Every structure is written in structure tokens, then in C-alpha cells.
Amino acid sequence: MTVTWEDLGWERVAAGVGRCRLPVWDCTIGLVAGEGAVLMIDAGSSLAEGAKLGAQARALTGHRVTHLALTHPHFDHVFGAAALPDTEVFGAVGVDALLTRVRDREELREDGVRQGLAAPTAREAAERLTPPGHLVSGEWTLDLGGGRQVLLANVGPGHTAHDLAVLVPGDPEVVFCGDLVEESGEPQAGPDAVPSHWPAALDRLLDLGGEDALYVPGHGAVVDAAFVRAQRDSLAARFGVSP
What we know:
- InterPro entries: Metallo-B-lactamas (IPR001279), NDM-1-like (IPR050855), RibonucZ/Hydroxyglut_hydro (IPR036866).
- The longest helix has 15 residues.
- It is built from seven helices and twelve strands.
């Protein structure tokens, strides 16, 4: 029996492109299917969550996750990564150092626990974190086979110093924004945010996708270009950034 996106609680965004919203932190996970290759976008908040996502990806596509793009280094997006073995992992330049340094992994663990993640779960995930093997400084095109190409773009800094977006060409085009865009609440600016550059990062997202694209936030419902532009203007006003 064929498993559909809806059967597993995923939302089909375009042909071969879907996403799910995880419980607790409402983190978005993206999935792009090619021919024998599968890209996952972010990995969830724990090893158990990452393993479950990997199993669901195989059920939906018939293949294991072969590529993983990490949109930014926050616990709810990266802690599941080690549960996806033999996967080519991509991140923005600089995220490798952050995920290697003991003090930075400890900060991620502490943040997870503060947000309600069980301490043993957070510790195990932090200890098994490894840096991406592929670092994106500008743009990187992935060929997933079957005519499916995906563009990874280093569009930050903004929400963090290491923000990566994913453009999936098609009709419609789909842009996975990470937490540069949030729909379910006001964008969160923690101590690692770079507010002075955040509006410019959203301009880059709009340049990537254009007016007719679907924009998938790190948290919340899929939005359009008008929403992204309004959030850009709101952030500029909030942080006193000139147009």
C-alpha cells in the first residue's frame, strides 16, 4: 500500500516536496525527493526524533535520507542529525567550528534543557553532534537525480550567524527559510542573532524565490512573498535598520 504525506502527518507542498511540523517546538522539517536521493532539511530536537524522521522519509520516498541541510545551529533543528547515518550533511560556513567546540555544544545542550528537553536526551545529542561535511559559502547546487536540482544558499547572517536557505525549483518554487522567517510567532532574536543583517537576509530569500514562490518558515504555516516582505519591514523597524 502506498503511503501518502498525509498518512504520516506531513504536508505536501509541491510535487516530491513536503514538510512536517514537529510537536513541542513546532519546528519544520523539509523533505525533497529525487531519483534515488532524498534531501532532508533540518533533523529535529533529539536522536529519537531524527531516527523517526528518517524512517518516515524512507516510507514516503522508498529511499533513505542521502543529504541533510541544516538551516542553522539551534538544538531543535540539529540534535537529530546523528541519527541519520551515511548522510551528506550541509551547513553554512562557520557552523562547523560551532558544532565542534565543546563550549558551544554545551550551550546548545543547556538551551535544550532550558526549553524543556530532557537532560539525558540533550546530553546524548550534544555529545554526538558532528560538523557538516559540506560548507556553503555562497550557493551550492545539489543534483538529486531525475531532473531534480536543489539550491542551497548561505543567506545569513540574520537569525544566527550561520543561516542556510534551500530553494527547490518547480511550479511552484519552494523556499525553506529556517528561522529567518517565523509564522507562528514573532521571530526570535537570541544572543547569536545578527539583527543588523536580518532584513537583508530576507531580501535575499525574496530574490531567490520571487513573488510566486511558497516560503516555508522554520516555525508555522507556509507563507507567501508578501508575508516575508512584511516580516522584513517589521524586523527593520524593530531593530532600527535603515532600508
